[in-house]
Design a protein that fits this description.
The chain is an alpha+beta fold and about 180 residues long. The chain folds into two domains: about 45 residues; about 120 residues. It is built from two helices and eleven strands, in the order αββββββββββαβ. It has a five-stranded mixed β-sheet with strand order 3-6-8-1-11, with no helix packed on it. A hairpin with a 5-residue loop joins strand 4 and strand 5. The longest helix has about 35 residues. The chain is elongated, with a radius of gyration of 28 Å. About 15% of the residues have low confidence.
Length: about 180
């Protein structure tokens, strides 16, 4: 009977030793990860990521490219050419506040042919290519500037943006200067 007790005490001692080793290894792993993360700061040109966005607002934008020489089809993929070929899938949209600090970003999706007159329907010809986008998680600020790629930013005040139900339209080419 004494053998059983000794065996039980030895097994219990072995389990305690394993638990202590596991705890030490776990703490060492946490220390290594923490040391690896210490001192890291985002680069100066980094754009806000979805993980860092914390605001309640979202801008819903529509980039409309009109080309009278284009032969696009309503509800089908389209890609501008010529001087507006930079307006394409993946073009970066950046939103800044009044101080010029980036507060949100998105990328344009693939373009889709959009109706250019009341008689258009799916499959008909069009001269308008649309790129709808959303920039979520924006903080509330008095001024928003939205830049599509390298094109000049459109600046809008908070009150005006609210009156537009947080929707903005960008037409290219713009009106004659």
């Amino acid at each position: 009977m004494s053998r059983t007790r000794v065996g039980s005490a030895a097994a219990s001692s072995t389990q305690s030793g394993n638990a202590i080793r596991l705890t030490v290894i776990l703490w060492l792993g946490i220390a290594v990860v923490a040391a690896g993360c210490a001192g890291r700061t985002p680069s100066a040109d980094s754009r806000p990521s979805a993980e860092r966005r914390s605001g309640p607002n979202a801008i819903h934008g529509y980039v409309l490219v009109t080309d009278p020489d284009a032969a696009w089809t309503v509800d089908a993929a389209c890609t501008p050419t010529g001087p507006l070929k930079d307006l394409a899938e993946g073009t970066v949209v950046v939103v800044t506040d009044g101080s010029g600090a980036a507060i949100g970003d998105a990328s344009l999706p693939a373009g889709v042919g959009e109706e250019d007159d009341a008689t258009d329907h799916a499959g008909s010809d069009t001269h308008v290519c649309e790129f709808p986008f959303v920039v979520p998680g924006l903080i509330t600020t008095e001024t928003y500037a939205v830049r599509i790629g390298d094109h000049p930013a459109k600046t809008v005040q908070l009150g005006d943006l609210k009156a537009l139900f947080w929707q903005l339209f960008f037409t290219f080419p713009g009106p004659p200067q």
